[in-house]
Write a structure and sequence with these properties.
- This protein is about 40% helix and about 20% strand.
- α11 packs antiparallel against α12.
- A hairpin with a 6-residue loop joins β2 and β3.
- It is an alpha+beta fold.
- The strands form three sheets. The protein has a five-stranded mixed β-sheet. The protein has a four-stranded antiparallel β-sheet with strand order 9-12-10-11.
- It is built from 13 helices and twelve strands.
Length: about 425
């Protein structure tokens, strides 16, 4: 038996923890530079606000419905997430943190008859200790636990936990779940299945092996077996290394200035390289993209991306910045105002398995020592305290006009209680 604990409207819930007046009021959280919506309370969803919707389109709606608007406060959300996860570890022999607001719990060997009470106890404890409402789904597989958690989120009468393990209740629930809502079934597969008349998870679970193997390979078969109650997705207590690392941003303002884009790309490359080193990896491929503001159709539009394969895998900010800037020079076009850009690292592998180039001229040992010093200084004195010349000495600051305090991570921003 597996559990899936999902924090309800997590970013909005974090803001409500420290401002109870927000209960019952529409709340939205914006992306970097206050660009678009990345989180919504249930009240905001009922107003028709969409994920990814640009904030400038919502200003009239905000005034009419008194919508509370917040800039993304990732320091707060990350700390609240750690608090929730530490509580979950008290209740299960093993936990797998799946994302900032989701974690799987391993209940293998426990009596299913006791899990309903345990689920409600977990939900009540998390809410009492952190203020965050959660929805817990408990079922024989991870995929079914995801479905049970979503059912719990949509039905407040369940009280924060949904146990789903009897075959008849699983079959009944699968008949109500659209095939596109099944974990692992993406848009392409959902369209494929719908064209063949498969519209629900229940219909998919009844498909024969050969049909699925021909059209969806072994991954589709594994999803189908999970829906039938056969656990096929391994439980991972330790997060695996990322296979791709990207740093992308919607800019605070559109720009066609090459020097500014040069600095941005250099800074994004440094950020991605630091993440690469943190997991002890190197990359063999780097890509850069530029995108104009697609919401302003009256302006000239341009999208370009390009990648390059490195002669030898590296984690050096200096090497990666040189490649990123070279890519920028190739894709940049005058006459366009770019609104979004970013850097992506791929072909990632463990550093201790790196295959070097016999003819390379880079002093690897020197680069390694320099990167270790760079990371140590930034860890001690703050991110980007030391940067490459290409990124500039004055890093760009994001527009976060609706930023809430860092209530739990900054002594100067603790809540002051009046007695």
């Amino acid at each position: 038996m597996y559990g899936l604990c999902d924090c309800n409207n997590f970013y909005a819930s974090c803001e409500r923890v420290f401002d109870p007046s927000l209960e019952g009021r529409p709340v939205i959280v914006l992306s970097n530079n206050d660009g678009c919506v990345i989180a919504r309370s249930n009240e905001a969803k009922r107003l028709g606000i969409l994920m990814g919707q640009p904030y400038y389109q919502l200003r009239d709606l905000q005034r009419r419905h008194d919508i509370a608007v917040f800039s993304a406060n990732f320091a707060l959300y990350g700390d609240m997430s750690r608090r929730v996860m530490s509580l979950l570890r008290r209740f299960a022999p093993a936990t797998e943190v799946y994302s900032i607001d989701e974690a799987f719990l391993d209940f293998t060997g426990m009596d299913p008859a006791e899990l309903d009470d345990l689920g409600h106890r977990i939900a009540a404890t998390v809410r009492r200790h952190t203020g965050i409402p959660v929805s817990i789904g408990i079922a024989p597989t991870k995929t079914l636990a995801k479905i049970a958690s979503k059912r719990c989120k949509n039905d407040p009468r369940l009280g924060g936990s949904c146990l789903m393990y009897r075959p008849e209740e699983i079959e009944s629930e699968l008949q109500r779940v659209p095939i596109g809502d099944v974990w692992g079934v993406g848009r392409r597969w959902a369209r494929l299945l719908e064209t063949h008349g498969v519209r629900t998870a229940g219909e998919f679970a009844r498909l024969p092996d050969d049909w699925i193997r021909r059209r969806m390979n072994v991954v589709g078969l594994r999803i189908r077996n999970e829906l039938r109650g056969e656990a096929c997705i391994e439980f991972e207590q330790h997060p695996s290394d990322k296979k791709q690392i990207a740093t992308t941003r919607t800019l605070d303002r559109a720009t066609g200035d090459y020097e500014e884009l040069h600095r941005r790309i250099a800074g994004f490359t440094a950020s991605a390289a630091a993440k690469l080193r943190a997991q002890g990896s190197v990359c063999g491929e780097i890509g850069v993209f530029l995108l104009t503001d697609r919401h302003k159709e009256y302006l000239p539009q341009h999208y370009e991306n390009e990648l390059t394969t490195l002669s030898a895998p590296t984690d050096s900010t200096l090497e990666l910045t040189a490649h990123a800037v070279a890519l920028l020079r190739r894709i940049y076009r005058k006459g366009y105002a770019y609104k979004r850009t970013g850097v992506a690292l791929a072909e990632i592998s463990p550093k201790n398995e790196r295959q070097c180039d016999l003819f390379e001229t880079v002093d690897r040992a020197k680069h390694d020592r320099l990167m270790q010093t760079l990371d140590a200084l930034n860890a001690a004195y703050g991110r980007d305290k030391v940067s490459t010349a290409a990124a500039g000495a004055d890093p760009f600051r994001m527009h976060r006009d609706h930023l809430s305090p860092r209530y739990t991570t900054d002594w100067e921003q603790l809540i002051r209680v009046k007695t």
